[in-house]
Amino acid sequence: MSQPLGALRMLGDELADATVATLFERGEVGKFNTLMRYVSTAGSPLPDDLPDIAREYLHQTAAPPDWVDWGEMERARLFFIDNNVHISTALSFAAMPACYVVPHIAKLLSATHSLQYPSKRMAETGQFTVYLMRPDAFEAGSRFIPAVQKVRLLHAAIRHHLVRENRWDTATLGVPICQEDMIGSQLLFSLLVLDSLHRLNIHMSVEGAGAYYYAWRVVGAMLGVDQAHAPADLTSAREFLDDYLVRYMGPSEEGAQLTRQLINLYEEVVPGTLFDPVVAALIRYLIGDTCADWLRVPRTGWDSAVKTVPALLGVLETIEDSSPLGAWALDRLGHLTSIFELSSLTRGRVMQYAIPEHLKPDYGVASAGPRINRWTPPPPAR
Q: 351 in the Ramachandran plot: left (φ > 0), alpha (ψ -120 to 50) or beta?
């Protein structure tokens, strides 16, 4: 990372950063966190004692961007319903490990106390995605908008701590959770998930894949990502993500530790021990041997067997494409599997998002219709 820093590495999130800085300056973070535990649905009356700066922030961020195409968002929701269990798999076993393979991102993710407990992180990610894909995600009574508002403040709080306590090399790395890293994360949770579904032989239409990517652009905007700098389509997203990963990915102790925690977590979720090695094998299959070795993902006897999964999924996808009854049954099974996975991670609780008052002291730095015109990933950037 000896090259000059780009402008996107020096930009954070002005609105959220100013809100968090004022809350800390006035000593109101604890009060804010306590009161916000009671605000979990959109449109709920805000507590009377909520700090004014927080009230203004929540007001400004209470709606999606005015450019949202609601038809495209509905197509994204149907795509998610059709592929929910596969998307959950890709998020858990590809997108999250890909975050860990960027050393400065792994350091950031290891900075908060809550990430000592990977089930909390994965449960928050799972619930966040489920909230997004509900029909009422942007209406009164939904849980999605409050979750977005709190995650955005969480990111701002991490920036605040690291800069104020001189625990981040801004000259070398740029601003913590900068715009470039936020765009990179947006692409990992969208394009890389689509790549993983393709690798698993999941049949996706061009329209469905595009809609899913579009939904994450909306999410990114609500999380403080300046979409004027983010790729507008999947082809430009491929170019950005390839360049981002080639420049930054590599081994780190934090990345390996986070990956070990992730593997341990899912080995606990999977009943018994016979299939425990499948977790590591699936991660290795989806992210490739080089990244898996950097993250110290163990090699297992299942590494070869897991390569047969796409063939099996391809058969199931063919049944789903050709039989309305088969499609209904498989979608229902996928829905129930996703519920089981999420309930195992959350222990039946709603995840709460809060501004961390301290960092870890040892921190170093409906039917979707027939799937014709099948989507394939854009080619690698030259």
A: beta
